[in-house]
Structures are given as C-alpha cells and as structure tokens.
Amino acid sequence: MRALVASMTGDHPARPALVLSNRADAGGIAWAAAQGISTEVIDHRPHGPDRAAFEAEIAARIAPYEIDIICLAGFMRVLTVGFVTPWQGRMINIHPSLLPKYRGLDTHARALAAGEQEAGCTVHEVTAELDDGPILGQARVPVLPDDTPDSLAARVLAQEHLLYPTVLRRFAAGDKTPIYLP
After folding, report:
1. Which sites bind (6R)-10-formyltetrahydrofolate (predicted)?
2. How confident is the model at residue 76 (pLDDT cuts 50, 70, 90)?
3. Is 95 an annotated catalytic residue?
4. Are 138 and 121 in contact (CB under 8 A)?
C-alpha cells in the first residue's frame, strides 16, 4: 500500500482516496492517516460467517469516496461474487506467486516444496474466482538453494513493490496489456 501511494505523484492518473482495512491494528491505517489519506476500518468478526453483510458495510463505507479503482494489498478476505461483480474490471490485486500457480495461501512454502526454480508475484484483475482474473503483470525471482519461505517471501515482496505501482499506473490510464519484469 505504501509503495502504491508513494507512486501516485506528479502526472500519475490515480490518487489515493481511501485506505480501508478489516484490522484496526494494520500498520497501513496509521500510516495513511498520517499522510492525510482517509481511512476506514471494518472489523469482519461481528459479521460472523455472513460475508455478504461484511461486504455490504464495505460498499456503504466506500461509496462516499467515489472510488474508481480498488487496489487490494494484503486484504486477506475472500470477496464474494456479489461484491466483485459491480467492480469487475476496476479491482486489482497482488498475489505472491506466478499465477496460475499457487493460488491461495502459503505460496512460498508450496513453491519450495515443489522444487520450483523461480517464484515471483502477479498483479491481476479480481474476479469471483480466487486469484484467477486476467494477469496484468508478473515479476520473477530465482529460487536459491538455501531459500526458506521467509527469505523467498522477502525477495518477492521487493518485486511486488516495483510491479504493483507500475501496473497501477498503466491500469489507471486504461492500459491492461500485461507486463513482465525480469
């Protein structure tokens, strides 16, 4: 989130309007507020298993901000088709694997267990299927012989901070052509 906000300067076609989290202790909330960016926190727990109610509250809270694009970054909640559909083509996410490989959680451990020679990250459009939307960009890193899930995650995260802002700039300007960083 910080990398995205930091990239939105000068002639960038997007501006940060809101940072929203389901966790009040998320570091990005305090940071965004300190930058003068509006923030909202919606705890999912009071909604129990009712994801639709949680998402209805999200929709109600973001409506006044007249959001054009939603950028998910570390939002670890699966969104339903009811929330995703109105945002189709206007919501993007970053995922720490080279999709379509390793959708979901524990991507680095799974890549290491499979003996992959490279790993990376993917920015994609959000669809109703988990980590399955059109790919907008990917960045690759080699898997090193002594890698652990944590060491691999750190190298992938560095690429996420380069890839996501680059893709967002293009996406906000209307360019959905995938890009691939080495």
Report:
1. 51, 93
2. confident
3. yes
4. yes
